[in-house]
Every structure is written in structure tokens, then in C-alpha cells.
Amino acid sequence: MFFLRVSVIAILPILGESELRANGNSVTQTESSVTLCEGEPVLLNCTYQTTGYPTLFWYVQYGSQAPRLFLRDGSADPEEGNRKDFSAHHKDRTYHLRKLASRVSDSGVYYCAMSPTESHILI
């Protein structure tokens, strides 16, 4: 068994509480921590509210390292999360992080983030 730490901190675009609100936008992570046996599936929940068209992200922090980009919504880049068989799909104001079989090397602090994009109308 290993411990997969999940932060209750959300990023929007700075670190804050488990639910961070700014200008009517919010990001919420419901788990404070998750403990799994190696090979078990991972599901980390992230929900958001916004008035714009967001870009969604997952960041990861291993040990004493700085947080770094893990997955980005709609990106075809070979990001770390994709290389480690994680997936996240933007649907119905959620961006849950999933993996079918966890590994000890997945242990870390995971942060859900949103960067709202304002809609503009050109006249």
C-alpha cells in the first residue's frame, strides 16, 4: 500500500483554499487525501464554476520539488500525465483526473487549476 497525497488546495491561477473563488470563478477539489494499493484505479475530482471559457490544468508536486504542469485540457502535447497513463476530460463543469492502475511513483500532491478566458465580441 502507498499513500497518494492529494492537496485540498486549488489553483486559480494562484494557490488558495480547497475552493478558491475569484471574479465569480471557482475551482473545487473534494479529496484531501487518497490512499491506494498499487494497481488500484485513481480518481481525483475537480469541479469548477466560471462565466467564461476556461482552460483547465492539473499540476503535480513530488516531494520538495516545485509544482509542475501535469495535464492540460485539449492539449495533444506529450505531457507528463499522458506519459504516465493519466487522463482528464473536461465535461459538465468537471475535470476529473483518472488512471486505471496506480503506481508508487504516482505519489504526490495534485492540484486542479483553471485559467478563465473571457469571450470577446468584435463589432
TrEMBL record:
Residues 1-18 form the signal peptide. InterPro entries: Ig-like_dom (IPR007110), Ig-like_dom_sf (IPR036179), Ig-like_fold (IPR013783), Ig_V-set (IPR013106), TCR_variable_region (IPR051287). This is Ig-like domain-containing protein. GO terms for cellular component: T cell receptor complex. GO terms for biological process: adaptive immune response. Keywords: Adaptive immunity, Immunity, Immunoglobulin domain, Receptor, Signal, T cell receptor. The keyword DNA repair does not apply. It comes from the Eukaryota. Coiled coil: none annotated. Residues 13-122 form the Ig-like domain. Pfam families: V-set.
